[in-house]
Design a protein that fits this description.
Length: 343
């Protein structure tokens, strides 16, 4: 390996494939809203000596990509989490690319205090005026909250420079993935600096594999990285990647049930610095959870605690025999990939 990223499962011997397969439950969870084109989220939960872990790579992901997710789930269930430095994780609220008039209604759905709001921008079919109006509505509704935007790579470089210049008045915490490519992020950041506009740039979609944050840092493409435990191969590996990147990190979920959110919370709890609100509030996008009491925020804060799936819910959410077989084969393939990568 070219980079000095630690091995999967902390270099320790994995539990046997048989042990892994004997302790898995496959679930299918209907979503409240379509997300990434997904209406039903399929996920595998493992129960090991250290607790529970969630394995939920999207169905189209390759074995190579999914193997990191398996390493993360096995770490959660068999190794447990590294030492935490905090027990409460600040989360942001999210305003989708709605009309400005709908903003109070969206924000009204959050319980308690809101300190940080992520506003989606650069939606296809909308204009910069729509985005600015939405931001203004949030700022008026919550004058004390800090704002950030997420373009999901939807702007061209010119559009990003124009838009982020126009948004200077909102003193954004950062702008997430204004354009698609890592090189594009670097150029947008440089052009903004030339204009003396210092809105921090965050890389999200550009960070998928463990090598990516190091590339982002090397190119000076971003000031902040958005990270997820599962695609980076677990909490320990993600911590090492953040340390090596030298950039502040924001922890986000990969659209998992509360078991996976617990792993994200463990990562956020162990980071030496956590300067921004995290994106671990996605359980509310699902119609059901795998645990009885979901791991959700109150007053913008998620309290870290153990989560244990509910047997009745696991039965309700169980997949067909055919689906079950497909997942067991997928787990087997990913497991073999992990073993090979360790040798
Ligand atoms: Mg994002």
């Amino acid at each position: 390996m070219k980079t000095s990223i630690p091995p999967f499962f902390d270099g320790q011997q994995l539990p046997s494939l048989q042990e892994v397969l004997e302790n898995v439950r496959i679930c299918s969870i209907p979503m409240n809203v379509k997300f990434r084109g997904v209406q039903v989220r399929e996920t595998a939960l493992f129960h090991g000596p250290a607790g529970w872990g969630e394995f939920a790579p999207f169905l189209e992901y390759s074995v190579e990509e999914s193997a990191a997710w398996l390493a993360s789930a096995v770490e959660s269930a068999w190794l447990g989490f590294p030492e935490a430095v905090r027990t409460e994780i600040p989360l942001n609220s999210t305003v989708p690319a709605v009309e400005a008039a709908q903003v109070p209604d969206i924000l009204g759905r959050y319980k308690g205090e809101i300190r940080e709001v992520k506003v989606k921008v650069a939606e296809t079919g909308q204009s910069l005026q729509d985005d600015v109006a939405r931001l203004r509505a949030v700022a008026q509704h919550l004058p004390a909250a800090r704002l950030k935007v997420d373009a999901n790579g939807g702007w061209s470089e010119d559009q990003a420079v124009t838009a982020l210049s126009a948004m200077e008045e909102f003193d954004l915490l950062y702008a997430e993935q204004p354009v698609e490519s890592v090189q594009g992020l670097a150029r947008v950041r440089e052009r903004l600096h030339e204009k003396k506009i210092f809105v921090p740039i965050a890389a999200d979609e550009s960070v998928r594999k463990a090598e990516d944050p190091l590339e982002v840092a090397r190119l000076g493409a971003a000031d902040v990285i958005i990270i997820k435990a599962a695609p980076l191969g677990g909490v320990r590996r993600a911590l090492a990647v953040v340390e090596r990147s030298g950039l502040p990190a924001v922890v986000s979920s990969a659209l998992e049930s509360s078991v996976g959110i617990r792993t994200g919370a463990a990562l956020a709890a162990s980071l030496p610095e956590l300067p921004f609100g995290c994106g671990l509030g996605t359980v509310t996008l699902m119609t059901q959870d795998t645990v009885e009491h979901s791991l959700v925020a109150e007053n913008g804060v998620l309290k870290v605690r153990p989560v244990v799936p509910d047997e009745k819910l696991l039965q309700i959410l169980a997949v067909s025999a055919e689906k079950n077989e497909w997942w067991r084969q997928r787990i087997t393939d990913c497991y073999r990939y992990l073993v090979d990568s360790q040798n």
